[in-house]
Design goal:
The complex is a heterodimer of chains A (129) and B (244).
Chain A: H1 19-49, H2 52-62, H3 65-92, E1 96-97, E2 100-101, H4 104-125
Antiparallel strand pairs in A: 1-2
Helix pairs in contact in A: 1-2, 1-3, 3-4
Chain B: E1 2-10, E2 20-28, H1 34-45, E3 64-67, E4 70-73, E5 86-90, E6 96-98, E7 101-102, H2 105-113, H3 134-141, H4 151-155, H5 157-161, H6 168-178, H7 186-193, H8 207-211, H9 218-238
Parallel strand pairs in B: 1-5
Antiparallel strand pairs in B: 1-2, 3-4, 3-5, 6-7
Helix pairs in contact in B: 2-6, 6-9
Chain lengths: 129, 244
């Protein structure tokens, strides 16, 4: 009897085999928007360093419909990434007190609370309230 | 009684150039699992069908296969949960030896590489056993539940795309010993765990933990290994004097 193992080909169809893989790919794709937004900020700093005219032109660019759509998409992707990531924190950071582990919701809850506090702090310094 | 259409991947290395699907119409009891249906096929319809199984109670980890595209233990996949044709294939990401039997040498070799056994920290107490508190036991208990069924490898796209990746179960089992208060073998395992093809190949898809029939949560173990390896790195580079 001869052995002749067959290696089945791997194709990109795995992404659509189960919703979990699509959710994962959406999370991975969020980096394109967040990375793009970061580059936009660098551009903004450059405009700021070039004087009032360049800065005004940059602000005008931010107000175009394409820019607003881009920002909304980036916000949605960033929120999706953050929420799914914080929900996973109990897996990476289990805390054992005595015999018992802290419930998952306490660990992810602490992350959400820290997120809210830092966001509120930033908004405060930005003069939002 | 229900007649179930099973669509089973067949591959005979002696006669087939590549695998193909074969259909069987099987008269099944309502409470049967996929493994019962396969046994019925083998006993009454086609004795040439090959597959692995042993305990029929989700303990031995032998009967892992793809049921309608999802990695499952055939002994735990109830027919009543699958209306319509049930497609049964060998575990994905492993070479097919014959029909539903896969070649598992890669996993077995990786498992051996992470030294999944006790490497005692201290000399064993004379004429006595190592002692452990319930809290110390609970610290790693979850990771002892792995039955080496390899469903996590079949679910992991990273392993499919990068076969050198150590993979979920091997890392979870290494982590199990690292968390054991009696064990002192962590440094010996880090060579494999902290490597690029170790924990860092994982991009946290999380599929391994979703399909694990024993709720081991290998994805959690891998992230914990990442955090510990990161702490190691910073400790070695920023506080080299603390290194043993």
């Amino acid at each position: 009897m001869s052995r002749r193992p067959y290696a089945r080909p791997i194709t990109s169809e795995w992404i659509f085999r189960h919703p979990r893989y699509i959710r994962y790919m959406v999370r991975e794709f969020s980096c394109l928007f967040i990375g793009g937004w970061t580059l936009l900020m660098v551009w903004g700093f450059k405009a700021l360093s070039e004087g009032p005219a360049a800065w005004a032109a940059f602000l005008e660019l931010l107000q175009t419909p394409a820019s607003i759509v881009f920002h909304l998409l980036t916000l949605a992707f960033a929120a999706y990434h953050s929420v799914t990531w914080f929900n996973l924190t109990p897996k990476a950071l289990p805390v054992q007190l005595g015999e018992e582990f802290l419930p998952d919701r306490v660990i992810s809850g602490a992350h959400f609370a820290a997120w809210a506090a830092v966001s509120a702090g930033l908004l405060y310094f930005a003069g939002a309230f | 009684m229900r007649q179930v259409e099973l669509e089973v991947l067949r591959y005979n290395p002696e006669t087939d150039r590549e695998p193909h699907f074969q259909r069987y119409a099987v008269d099944c009891q309502e409470e049967w699992v996929v493994l019962d249906a396969l046994n019925h096929v083998k006993e009454t319809l086609d004795p040439t069908l090959s597959y692995r199984w042993s305990c029929h109670m989700a303990v031995c980890g032998s009967c892992g296969m793809m049921v309608n595209g999802e990695p499952k233990l055939a002994c735990k996949a109830f027919l009543r949960d699958y209306p319509g044709v049930i497609r049964v294939e060998p575990l994905r990401h492993f070479p097919v030896e014959r029909d539903l039997v896969t070649v598992i040498d890669d996993f077995v070799a990786k498992l051996a590489r992470v030294k999944p056994y006790l490497i005692p920290k201290d000399k064993a107490p004379e004429a006595a056993e190592f002692r452990q508190t319930p809290a110390q036991l609970k610290r790693y208990k979850q990771f002892t539940l792995c039955i080496n069924c390899m469903l996590c490898y079949a679910a992991c796209p990273e392993y499919g795309l990068i076969p050198k990746y150590l993979g979920p179960a091997a890392i979870a089992l290494a982590h199990r010993w690292n968390r054991d208060s009696r064990d002192g073998g962590r440094d010996a395992r880090q060579e494999e765990l902290a490597a690029t093809e170790g924990a860092w190949e994982c991009s946290f898809v999380g599929a391994c933990s979703e399909v694990c029939p024993e709720h081991v949560d290998p994805a959690g173990a891998i992230q914990q290994v990442k955090i510990e390896s990161t702490v190691d790195w910073y400790q070695a580079h920023l506080m080299p004097w603390t290194k043993k």
